[in-house]
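Hey, I'm writing a tutorial for new members on how sequence and structure tokens pair up, and I'd like a real worked example in the thread rather than a made-up one. If someone can provide the structure for the chain below, I'll link this post from the tutorial.
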Amino acid sequence: MSDLPREMEEEVLSKLPVTSLGEVRSTCKKWNSITKGHSFLKRHMGESAEGASKKKQKQRKGIEIKVVMLLEKRVSLMSVNLLYPSIEPIGNINADGVDISKIIHCDG
């Protein structure tokens, strides 16, 4: 994700639950910096408050994880339920102007 604009990385990371932030921060220095920034915290707080009731309802339905998927050259955040197998789109991530030529991992 090192070639993605910072704003897009913030958007992706802001969709993660608060309990995952420790793991995200240890992934790489850039994500550590992003998740400690004021704009990220403000965005994450908004996402958390907005989705709190929806999240509780979904958690009652089964074991759920969030994944970022590349589908037809679009970056999407998906909810995957492991107990009652299903995949539901949470939303598309604005990737206008971003050309995805290869996918790599972030080396911490």
